Amino acid sequence: xxxxxxxxxxxxxxxxxxxxxxxxxxxxxxxxxxxxxxxxxxxxxxxxxxxxxxxxxxxxxxxxxxxxxxxxxxxxxxxxxxxxxxxxxxxxxxxxxxxxxxxxxxxxxxxxxxxxxxxxxxxxxxxxxxxxxxxxxxxxxxxxxxxxxxxxxxxxxxxxxxxxxxxxxxxxxxxxxxxxxxxxxxxxxxxxxxxxxxxxxxxxxxxxxxxxxxxxxxxxxxxxxxxxxxxxxxxxxxxxxxxxxxxxxxxxxxxxxxxxxxxxxxxxxxxxxxxxxxxxxxxxxxxxxxxxxxxxxxxxxxxxxxxxxxxxxxxxxxxxxxxxxxxxxxxxxxxxxxxxxxxxxxxxxxxxxxxxxxxxxxxxxxxxxxxxxxxxxxxxxxxxxxxxxxxxxxxxxxxxxxxxxxxxxxxxxxxxxxxxxxxxxxxxxxxxxxxxxxxxxxxxxxxxxxxxxxxxxxxxxxxxxxxxxxxxxxxxxxxxxxxxxxxxxxxxxxxxxxxxxxxxxxxxxxxxxxxxxxxxxx
Length: 522
Known about the structure:
Blueprint: H1 2-67, E1 80-85, H2 89-97, E2 103-109, E3 113-115, H3 120-123, E4 134-136, H4 137-142, E5 148-152, E6 154-159, E7 164-169, E8 184-189, E9 192-195, E10 199-201, H5 209-212, E11 214-215, H6 219-236, H7 243-249, E12 251-255, H8 259-279, H9 281-284, E13 288-292, H10 304-316, E14 319-322, E15 326-330, E16 334-338, E17 344-348, E18 351-354, E19 358-360, H11 362-370, E20 381-382, E21 395-397, E22 402-403, H12 410-430, H13 439-446, E23 457-462, E24 465-472, E25 475-481, H14 482-495, H15 499-515
Parallel strand pairs: 1-2, 1-9, 2-5, 9-21, 11-18, 12-13, 12-18, 13-14, 20-22
Antiparallel strand pairs: 3-4, 6-7, 7-8, 10-19, 15-16, 16-17, 23-24, 24-25
Helix pairs in contact: 2-12, 6-7, 12-13
């Protein structure tokens, strides 16, 4: 009996020992796995910290460099003078990418800043502050290796034979605009000329447009629209006006169904829903938005699905679209339209924004007149596949003022600016030992012709919705909705010219989300 008991105890101790051994092995295995995972997590954390630290350091370096530009070299008399007319998408892109070691660069423009026009409709209602999309040209100029000279003036005439430009400063000592021909004038010479003055608003000869409508082309236009909008709303809040007059003041009209007109109508709707309903509850329900388009559809350059989506969104937002309707006359308080059936109607309005096509600037007309034999199109300057003005020597044109066979879009002008600056840099470097080399002629033999590559089209349509028509290999991808709206935001943030602009626009969006738009009248 005792022998059996001892045998049982030995078996129990053996079982306990085996169990303990198994537990120890399991614990060791778990510990080993944990030790394996811990270094991986630490590495991931260290990598994240490193990326964040590197990003912060790079941002800080960019801010420091922006505030502390290096010393520039003076003009070199042995270099040729290249004059850039305008500070739009084309000319500013040339300035940004041009190596000033190879040229004495002069910039001429009546405005001393670059304007990010795709976000201009957002400034009309206070979604974005005006200066957030304005990049001072001197910031770009000051960071070039060689000094760049700037004239805040308008080019009013050109003498192609003597290669001289006549400039007129349209601002007096007090900062007020002066009439054409009454400003201070000066003349400068050039060896190469790049014309990138863009276009001006085309009224198509419609009576009363220039006197009574608001345009949406420059920052001054956005300020004017914002003032008139608040004037109409505040005037409509008076008690001693008739109901018909109140309805007139609260009728906002947009003429033009392109991207600019569509985006402004969308921004105006957001302002109505997000802000006017809070601060003017007695008026918000009476505000009407009407978009007038002469063509059968809005957004003719977009896919049919996106056109239908935009029209259905506008219908949900109570924005009236009048297609096949032409504006024949604009008065102080009403405008006359020709309806699809040929009849005419008079429509009262409080604010009318004219967002239609463009026409050439006066200086473009003068350049074209000097080469009348080759310049046979009154809409702009005819250029060849190397962006050279036909009939001229040493003159390039790009952007909206150049008839290159492509649509007058910002991305076309930007790509033209990159192409021209890249090839001028290459030709100047290849001919560094021959300063008298004719780059205007060499560009045809040494460079590939310009070819536009479409990056797609985007448009904001209100209610935090956007549409996108994007190329993908041999087909296009179309999208619309809230997700596309965030893509629209990220795309425009990435296209802004500087870290300063990106930071300001992002902060404006955040500020609007938390505090709403500023409804004060300037």
